[in-house]
Specification:
With 152 residues, the chain is of the alpha+beta class. The protein contains 3 helices and 5 strands; from the N terminus they run E-E-E-H-E-E-H-H.
Length: 152
């Protein structure tokens, strides 16, 4: 795999208060996003990471479906996605995302869309987030002290 096959991006997350954080999307003009844990930990002043993950999955699937429909020269109306996450405690008693169910709602009758069977058969493959979550994503973690020394 060459460097041309790799893309990177970054963000910065800073604690504002208690469990509230400000997310800055580095090197973009995207406005900052506030995240927060729901009560009783936080104040619920923004989505928490679990909700952001579900939103990312649903958004990516909707965008991938739109991309696939347009690829086959369709001009679909507005899409809508609804998602529901199920969390369950694991054997250690920790909450884990067990399942995410996403419904994608077309605004057009299926009969009016060209190549819908092919589209349905391939659109999920375009979804970076869903396919990454399904496969598992390597996450490397370092903890640094105030002087920048790695402490783990």
């Amino acid at each position: 795999m060459s460097d041309q096959d790799t893309q990177t991006f970054g963000l910065t997350l800073e604690q504002v208060d208690n469990y509230e954080f400000r997310v800055r999307f580095d090197d973009t003009a995207i406005p900052d996003l506030t995240t927060d844990e729901p009560e009783p930990l936080g104040d619920g002043d923004g989505p928490n990471p679990s909700r952001l993950l579900v939103a990312a999955i649903a958004n990516c699937l909707a965008a991938s479906l739109l991309f696939a429909m347009r690829k086959f020269k369709n001009a679909p109306g507005a899409l809508k996605a609804t998602a529901k996450a199920s969390m369950q405690r694991n054997q250690a008693g920790r909450w884990r995302m067990e399942r995410v169910a996403v419904d994608l709602h077309l605004s057009d009758p299926a009969a009016e869309l060209e190549h819908l069977e092919r589209i349905i058969g391939q659109f999920e493959d375009f979804c970076i987030v869903t396919q990454s979550v399904r496969q598992g994503v390597a996450v490397d973690v370092r903890v640094l002290d105030r002087e920048g020394r790695v402490v783990n």
